[in-house]
Design a protein that fits this description.
The protein is 13% helix and 32% strand. The chain is α+β, with helices and mostly antiparallel strands. β4 and β5 (71-76) form a beta hairpin. The longest helix is centred in the N-terminal third of the chain and has 11 residues, at 17-27.
Length: 154
């Protein structure tokens, strides 16, 4: 039997939890390393999520978050300090500060509500808000042609 690796889809989507959990269980998928920068996707509640990305060395000015249709793009471009010979002063450079672009596919009605940098981590808060027309509602069942009995007559 062939195994399909759905990890790339699972890692870059938010709000499709149930679908991917079912597919993951059926195909036996496993988490694989995803590249640079590393990130986590957390489910905070029924309709709330958080993406946390390790962006050590980047400032708020170096990062750009854009949401268009159902795709959120996070770009990082380290601004130089004006000294082009910075590579010569490092004997070893293990902290990556290279430019990156990471895309996340968002489910319908999932929107970014805020972002903040804290201790070298970029936290992006997401929330799913269904329109009123799509929310479940209860419908009262009535009878047709029958008179209502008032409490005074009884």
């Amino acid at each position: 039997m062939r195994q399909f690796d759905l990890t790339p889809l699972y890692r870059s989507t938010v709000g499709y939890d149930r679908l991917f959990n079912v597919l993951d269980n059926v195909t036996g998928g496993e988490n694989l390393n995803s590249g640079y920068p590393p990130y986590n996707i957390e489910r905070l509640g029924e309709n709330e999520y958080r993406i946390t990305m390790a962006v050590a060395g980047f400032s708020e000015d170096d990062l750009d978050i854009e949401s268009r249709e159902n795709t959120m793009t996070v770009k990082g471009n380290k601004m130089g300090d004006g000294n082009e010979a910075t590579e010569d002063r490092f004997m070893h450079q293990g902290i990556a500060a290279r430019a990156f672009e990471r895309r996340f596919q968002l489910a319908d009605h999932v929107e970014a509500t805020g972002a903040r940098i804290e201790n070298g981590l970029l936290h992006i808060e997401l929330k799913r808000e269904l329109p009123e027309a799509m929310k479940p509602r209860t419908i009262k069942i009535g009878t047709s042609g029958q008179k209502k009995i008032s409490r005074k007559a009884a």
